Amino acid sequence: MIKVNGIAKSFSKKHIIDEVTFSVAAGECLALCGGNGAGKSTMVKMLTGIYTPDKGTIEMNGIASSRSSTAYRAQFSYMPDDLAFHPLVTGQEALQYAADLQKIPSQRVQEVLELAGLEAHAKQKVKNYSKGMLQRLSLAQSLLVATPVLILDEPTNGLDPYWVHRLKELIQEQKRSGQTIVLTTHMLSIVEQLADTLAFLQDGTLLVNDSVAALLHRYPTLDDALFNEYTHE
What we know:
This protein is α/β, with parallel strands linked by helices. The protein contains 9 helices and 10 strands. The chain has 2 domains: 2-75 and 147-230, P-loop containing nucleotide triphosphate hydrolases (Rossmann fold, 3-Layer(aba) Sandwich); 83-146, no CATH class. Helix content is 36%, strand content 26%. The chain has a 6-stranded mixed sheet with strand order 6-7-8-3-9-10, sandwiched between helices. It has a 4-stranded antiparallel sheet with strand order 2-1-4-5, with helices on one face. The two termini are 34 Å apart.
């Protein structure tokens, strides 16, 4: 479903991503991990077409990435880690605007509000939403369309334990429906529970690209696999 081949990205002559290659099979979940500054956000922005790789190629469902490619953009839904909603609109208005742009029925807006637990706050202005509620509103907008791929950038940020648990259930539901998932996270417990493959970046280099099951077969935990065997100061 996703093929990333030798992509690299630099800013001001500083290498951020250094010739990374990986793939994600249809219906599987890839967890993209790494410390701060490892290149996760840059990688996600290249997957979503916000950034263009300096070299290498990205394909999604057989379609090459391009900022101007409507066909490529139609392959994925995206939950960024910093989506800014207008503070003076309500949650429902924010989603309805996104739905109207994509010609999505209003009924779907109500469905995703319920999925995100925001139906009781639908008429509340976004400026009064908590961090967790804003995160759930961002999740809701990413679920408006049933695309082949769902990209979630740090989806647990700001969520309380209940909604971390509910998010995991929602991701499992999306996987069962056949959707391919790419998520970035610092929470290795989520990787163990949800991901089929772990891609671990360090200083822009893909240090680990292996199945979660294989890693857990060789090591007691992903902590052991990553921080005792692979990573370094």
